[in-house]
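Section 5.1 Outputs to date
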Amino acid sequence: MAPPPQKNLVLVLSGPAGSGKTTLCEALCSAYPGVVERLVTTTTRAPRPGERDGHDYHFLDQPTFKRAIDRGAFYEWAEVHGNLYGTQKAHVRQRLAANRDILLNIDVQGAEAFRKAAAEDPEIAGRLLTVFIQPRDLAQIAERLRARGSESEESLSRRLETARREIPESTGFDHIIPSGTREEDFHRLEALYREAKARLANP
């Protein structure tokens, strides 16, 4: 399939744990190599075995991260279970300058921060597309998380409670994809992506 017309897009994908957003990110990047690129975000948590700085995350210690917050280096940041996570403005601008569409897999709080930034920052004004992957219900989320085989019941309960808070925030997104099969979700996401690219190419 030919790539869509080129004018760079910032695509924010959000959804509860178990919604399949990570798989969708990988699928879209694979479908458009050299065009769509997942942005590597920044964290203060320690690297896990096999993780590489600059590939999986940009790893910073807490004092360095907090100094970056103070100088306004992040579009969005949050504390999650004692660790800080965020998206650095410089990394976004570098990838846009390299003629890439940026794909971000972030939570609803981060998506809201990007919406506010888009209203003020000419670097991303008019480029932003926010999409929420909405599972059918909490039972579907629980089923998918249990299928991973990596969640304790305590972790599962915590993720379900987070999902219960996140789902009502979906109304602030440009589009909501009701989650079905992986193939269905991907086709819907790809269609939204191509429509947004066409709008950017022909404002």
